[in-house]
Specification:
Helix content is 58%, strand content 4%. By secondary structure, the protein is mostly helical.
Length: 323
């Protein structure tokens, strides 16, 4: 039985808000950006000019060809990489799938949110909190040209961390193979991401200018399985990339690094995952609480550098002791 229309609602297809052709900003070209949102103070609004927002968009999209290049490199050199995972090409596939989940799955989740918001990071307001008797001032706070959508951010974070959890886990599965604990981490994490409880939720905030600003809107269940898979991923990176870094040490472009004790070199293998994580944390903790668009750009430069390090580590692995 079809549900009854809401009181006072217009018949389907007869609403003045049914505007499929309306976009934000209402401009024809992607490089044309909206004016700074009304919630930004004059100082922060200066950082939301089109040049900065286009740089932010560019660096986000740039992570895709870089990530796809690393995927292609793994594919082309699968036989050489398989030597380091017991000669098992299926485990090389898990390595590829892990990278794909992190680059494409995680990346598109954030890009979708940023596209909706006109690539601006501003104070957030949750549209779900709007009541039927809301005042005009309250309604103004959920308009796209004024504030960012807190509920959209929460959905994007849930999707992003789901893909990151899967990506981290698949990499670990590729390194160590289908051991019971690894399978539990990977597929248990995916199960929690898909059907786990959405409550309770985190209540983290960062105090900026005397104001507590919410950050990391996420379910605790997903955050926990993400953290477990992230830790396992660090262990996997150490065991997978560490030995080949030792073989190729010191790098010919940086011969002065020969002063680094050889026992310390395998730990450099953690630079790739930690740099990616640092970029994501910088965006979520700093950019999304200061609302400075330059901070958003810096965050993704850091993250993209981490992806490049993965490519460098795979190159060393394929080329053995070549410096």
């Amino acid at each position: 039985m079809p549900s009854a229309p809401l009181p006072g609602s217009a018949p389907p297809g007869d609403s003045p808000l049914a505007l499929p052709g309306l976009i934000y900003p209402p401009l024809p070209w992607a490089f044309q950006k909206a004016a700074p949102k009304a919630s930004l103070n004059p100082t922060l609004a200066r950082s939301a000019r089109p040049l900065v927002l286009n740089l932010i968009e560019l660096i986000h999209w740039a992570s895709f060809p870089l990530g796809f290049y690393v995927l292609a490199y793994i594919f082309v050199h699968a036989s050489a990489i398989a030597v380091h995972v017991g000669g098992d090409l299926l485990r090389v596939f898990w390595l590829q799938l892990g990278m794909a989940c992190q680059v494409f799955g995680g990346g598109i989740s954030g890009i979708l949110m940023h596209e909706y918001e006109g690539w601006q990071v501003t104070p957030f307001r949750n549209i779900l909190g709007l009541k039927e008797q809301a005042t005009p001032q309250e309604v103004a706070q959920i308009l796209v040209p004024n504030f960012n959508n807190a509920w959209l951010r929460a959905v994007a974070y849930q999707m992003l961390f789901s893909f990151q959890t899967a990506g981290l886990g698949f990499f670990t599965l590729g390194v160590f193979g289908p051991q019971p604990l690894i399978l539990l981490l990977v597929f248990g994490g995916i199960a929690v991401a898909l059907i786990g409880p959405s409550e309770p939720r985190t209540a983290f905030s960062r105090r900026v200018d005397g104001e507590a600003r919410p950050v990391l809107p996420l379910s605790w269940s997903l955050l926990i399985v993400f953290a477990l898979n992230a830790f396992a991923n660090l262990v996997a990176c150490y065991h997978f990339f560490g030995p080949t870094l030792v073989q190729a040490w010191p790098p010919s472009l940086l011969p002065w690094l020969a002063v680094v004790p050889i026992w310390l070199v395998p730990w450099f293998s953690l630079l790739a995952p930690l740099t990616v994580a640092a970029g994501g944390a910088y965006e979520g903790w700093i950019a999304e609480s200061t609302f400075n668009q330059w901070q958003h750009f810096i965050a993704f430069v850091i993250l993209t550098l981490g992806l490049g390090l993965y490519g460098l580590f795979y190159w060393h692995m394929v080329n053995g002791g070549v410096h």
